[in-house]
Amino acid sequence: MQKVFTFSQLSEAAAFMDPKVFAYIHECQSESYESHDTFDLLAFDFYDMRHPRSANAKILIYLDRNDLFFFCKTPEAGQCVRDIVHDLTENSSLSNEQLFYSFFVKLLKGNTEYLARFEEQINDEEARILSGLQQKALSQFFDWRKELLQLKRYYEQLDSIFDEMDANDNGLLSDETLKRIEILGARTDRYLRAVQNLQEIVNQMCEEYQSQLSIQQNELMKVFTIVTVLFLPLTLIAGWYGMNFSGMPELHWQYGYPVVIGVSFVIVLLLLLLFKHKKWF
Q: In whole angstroms, what is the distance from residue 21 CA to residue 271 CA?
């Protein structure tokens, strides 16, 4: 028997399963892959390529010599699994082993193209972000990191499942199916390495962006420093003659005001020439 259930429909599967096994599944204790005497039970967090921003949903798969059951945490994941099973069994009936293997083949179909598009998106955005045209760069980095982390966990789980299934301790799977699962494991491992490479690229972009921000801040501080140095002598002059002591002859000199203006102008000009010579701007 081959059926797809959501977690809310678990009670419908009770009639087809051993009570102890059903109770074990009902408690959702399974993690990764478990090989029991008469059945295999595996669990992973499904990543929906059609809706990348959606939260991951757990999928449990129960396989024995007579039955293959899929248990999905959310209706969306359940619908995706039903669509896959329907496409695979619409024109021909498949054994539990065949459907089990074909399900994962279908599930991983298009992943290469998806990761390639993801890489192209990152490359297209890189120039804009690093040139300062992308105003929400940090938000974009956060979204990429979050999505890549979900993908990494997804492929890590599948890679672990395929590796552990090779042992086939209970003999449920034929040698031919095991060889095909080994191929799936190698494919998943390639996807995992691709995701890790994308994570490194995004991290490098984030570091470059932070460096660019630091450079811009340093340039801004440089401008503020130059302005401060230019007006520091003028501030000294203003403070000096703002004391208004009675013994200051310049206070009663008719040319005192224009002379101070001229001196201030000369000081600013000399400082500008000095900064220019030092290549500070």
A: 85
Give the strand pairing for 33-35 and 2-6.
unpaired
Distance CA 18, CA 264 (A): 96
List CB contacts of 160: < 8 A, sequence separation 6 or more: 32, 33
Contacts 24+ apart (CB under 8 A), 251-258: none
Q: Which residues does 65 contact at the CB level (< 8 Å), separation at least 6?
A: 38, 96, 172
Q: Using an 8 Å Cβ cutoff, are 264 and 232 in contact?
A: no
State how far the Cα of 269 lies from the Cα of 246, in Å rounded to an integer: 31
- Average pLDDT, rounded, for the chain: 81
Between CA 144 and CA 120 the distance in angstroms is 13
Alpha helices by DSSP H, the chain:
10-13, 19-26, 75-89, 96-108, 111-130, 137-165, 175-241, 256-277
Domain ranges of the chain: 1-92, 221-277
Find out whether 74 and 9 touch, Cβ atoms under 8 Å.
Answer: no
Query: What pLDDT is attached to residue 132?
Result: 62
Query: Does the global pTM surpass 0.85?
Result: no
Are 7 and 44 contacting, i.e. CB atoms less than 8 angstroms apart? no
204/109 Cα distance (integer angstroms) = 29
Q: Please tell me the predicted confidence (pLDDT) of residue 52.
A: 59
Distance from C-alpha of 279 to C-alpha of 231, rounded to nearest angstrom: 19
- Point out the residues of the chain with pLDDT beneath 50: none
Question: How do beta strands 2-6 and 39-46 pair?
Answer: unpaired
Q: Which residue has the tokens 């599967």?
A: 13
| Residues 67 and 16 sit within 8 Å (Cβ to Cβ) | yes
Q: What is the CATH number of domain 221-277?
A: 1.20.58.340
